[in-house]
């Protein structure tokens, strides 16, 4: 990124002021010179914003700004040195004031030498600053900033609610999606077809491709769907591995390209749909992907998105040009992103006239419209402010590349200075890289982009606000997930803009780019992707004496030379992840300015004691360093450390003294005590008591809690701002009696009571004790943990019951796994008000119970009576959308889940004690028209002992009308897996008018599937007694797979023992008009039945009217399986009957 001058001067003046007023400046004798520098900087602060804006128009101003920045960088380095030396002197003589403090002879000579050198540097710095800023020709072109001109004054924290809004507006994209989907699913005799979606950057190619990818018809017609983003800096190995993973395979031991290509070819045995997003070169197809697709066993479709039409043509793709949006669609997209859903239409209409003029300037590009919407959202909502956007000079910025929309530059110019730096830094990540919120925050803090705050807020808190605001302004794209805003990406056009703006002092080198000396003069930040054969950092990089940030990505083969750190003394940020670096040289201790050191997944075996000299180090990431077993004692000297990440690193212990690191706010993977199997002394391992002094903690995860010793005090009593707490233990050591170990665990976990009302995430793993800890059973939980949003309880085997978690007002996610001590869950789980008018679990969205091997009964404990449960039910789990019951073999009683008003997905797997799902599953029927499962869209059941599944009784016309409203009105997907005792589908299922997909596996006693009027997709596996499949008028996809165990004969002499259900045969043979909707038929069977579908076989006439047919033999490890592939239009018939199968007759 590039330094933003006004922001940097503002922060530096604050830093200078703090230093000048402290003791250290007096001890070093530099106070007067630094005050002079401070005054000179303050005088010009008012014109620096104007200079930043005009530097892109006036070359002389650009030179002037660059000279000032050079002075600023040098000043920052000098103040760093002063602070380090001053801190050393204070530590040597802590008891005396600066005036009276006596110095030793050695310290005296050392101090005099330093004072002389630093004084000379500061005087020289003063002269350079004075000489530069007094250039009259420059000053005459600049205006002081007017009060209030700065966009979004960042003096106070703001809360930005992130909502990822859709790009889909108007009819253009809907019509394009529909037409392309129909074309892609149309049958032909080609092995594969390639569709090229072509258009300029920001026009919506990826949006269209994603709309196609997620279309229901694409899901129905293709067994495997894979999305891969390629970008300009793609790695051939990573690309192949990503497609292999998406196809359901793994690269295994494959190392060479040939092995990976072969592995991919073997996986392309099912009909596939693959999107290759953002293709820049045709080489990726010709040199890498064409061969496996041409040699695939199954047909497929490939969609590429590219800006370059020649790329699409060179791979012989069918081309679809993405048109620009019309102005009306642009206006609709604009107001959807500026206004809230509940805003009055009249107010929106009042902005339409000026809004249409603004979107005209966006030239039909959705990205441009969205970023301008981000600008308008940040301003006061009135036409005066909107007119400022319309008449902004940024629209006519002529220095930008012609392919960069000016709207993007305008959105950048509207940012506050601090946000500009954060935005620009994101361009140092590789193209299309998925950036994590925590990583960005740590980079920004380490680079000094976030100024220190007052009160309880940390710099990390302010950095998180910056992150959210960049998403809110549509300059970063947030990705939905478990935590909605943890991940983001940067559009490549915005990234190109940022790279253009930082070109004077920062550079990103792609995989095929070689650094040279010309563009790297006075380089401050370097980021490079190394996915190729480079094994050592190039010499030209070692020569960049001014380098402050070095980021190396995908650097699996990179060796880091020892002399690297000796040359680059001014480094602030070092990222050397996934390298072959097995040790750090002692010279790392000379990086006195270093704030950030990331060695994630490095092969590092030890850290030198010299690391203790890194007094400015703030972030240290040693996670997944699988060869690192110990930390040096000197790590406890890193007094400015704010983040220490140690997860998945096999440390035997953490050195005593971590409690001295008072600024730590993120401690991940803290290991308690020491490993008895090592030579560590008893006093070497860090105890829980050291956490008591870490009052700034926001994130804490603890390992090896079984080693801890109870101390009687609240360990986290001072951590009043804790947001995340993760507790990990193991089973107690075998040399302790079980009763003693359990009692000790109880004491330890009770001492870990979090005293923070800010806690948002709690995870507890591998707890063994007499019961739940007191701090989770106390009442009221709503007062103790008012912000707790996510809870994971994993392998807490001794809990006899769950705490009243229903009282937590903000809980959204709850995962309970391996709680073997629980037999029943009742109203205590909901809270004492379960039967009252109060709401239990008011915000819970996702609930999972997994591997609960002794759980027998789950009850809401509601008051019985006509309509009473329906009255109470809306107060229970009113927002629950996803419920999973997985591997609960003794569970025999479940509550009336049909009453949950927002449940969309229900999965019941491995609840083998349940034999009948009856009316209690839906909830008691009443005279009301209320439906059971009113929002349910997907139901997946995998229960071995089910005999009856109830969806309502149908006993006559009148009864049918009475029961029908109780069925899930929105049920679209139903999966019944491993239900061998299930005798029949629920009779009322035919009244589920939205049911479209049905999957039935291992239903050994099921005899019929019929009367499902809306069903489009049916998959049947191992249902040997199935006799009737009929009255499925809208069926489009049918798959039947026999189990090999039912095929007792492998020869033709006895004929096939497998047979299609008679009802299906009759349906296909006698009523072809009724099957006109059937698009695809798949069958997996033994060889005898397969042969009956050959052209001279008795079943050929059955498949002949179907557009697409695939029939395959069971997979056999010793030989290639036989198959038949047939398409009706155009007519194709491909078959392979393995000869070895024929020879088996002779055996």
From TrEMBL:
Q: Which InterPro entries match?
A: Apaf_helical, Leu-rich_rpt_typical-subtyp, LRR_dom_sf, LRR_R13L4/SHOC2-like, NB-ARC, P-loop_NTPase, RX-like_CC, Rx_N
Provide the NB-ARC domain boundaries: 178-343
- The segment(s) forming the Disease resistance protein winged helix domain are 428-498
Q: Tell me the ranges covered by the Disease resistance N-terminal domain, including all copies.
A: 9-89
SMART domains registered for this protein in UniProt: LRR_TYP (SM00369)
Record keywords, A-Z: ATP-binding, Leucine-rich repeat, Nucleotide-binding, Plant defense, Repeat
GO molecular function per UniProt:
ADP binding; ATP binding
Q: Per its UniProt record, what CDD domains does this chain match?
A: RX-CC_like
Q: Ranges for the Disease resistance R13L4/SHOC-2-like LRR domain? A: 547-885
Q: Which gene encodes it?
A: LOC105055342
Supply one GO BP term. Answer: defense response to bacterium
The family line of this record is: Belongs to the disease resistance NB-LRR family.
Q: What is this protein called?
A: Disease resistance protein RGA3
**Transmembrane feature ranges:** none
PANTHER family membership: DISEASE RESISTANCE PROTEIN RGA4 (PTHR36766:SF70), PLANT BROAD-SPECTRUM MILDEW RESISTANCE PROTEIN RPW8 (PTHR36766)
